[in-house]
Amino acid sequence: MARNDGHEQAREFSLLLDDQLCFALYAASRAVTHRYRPLLEELGLTYPQYLVMLVLWEHGTVSIKDVGAALHLDYGTLTPLVKRLEAAGLVRRERRPDDERTVRVSLTGQGAELRERAEAVPSAIGAAMALSTQDFDEVKRILRQLTTNVSTGP
User: Fold this and answer.
1) Of 85, 75, 102, which is closest to residue 40 (Cα–Cα)?
2) For the HTH marR-type domain, which residue ranges apply (predicted)?
């Protein structure tokens, strides 16, 4: 059964590769992250590191737990990313004095300065996607709904 605006509809599913939404998502994700690669190499970042930096540029000092929640990443995946960013001098990790279990991540001066160089990345990716503003917003909306449905579904 497929969901459509909250109503169940009968749908035929096949095992043809071209019929698989998961493959279309996979191929699109690979193509987009491939397009990011040279832009991010100029910044000294990998794509996952860039995502961490986006959270920090937007929110400032954030707990590791909150970064993980924003990026849908578990602690074991996120910790090595943050450690590499720290080794590069872009972020610092600190335990909260009132709660030693909580690790906060904040930008260094170098990490804050990198934001200015990164400002060209979204427009370059947007140009590569070549979607109208309406299509871009609709794709984001559908993908967010898909994430919600799959994450909360049976």
Assistant:
1) 85
2) 18-148
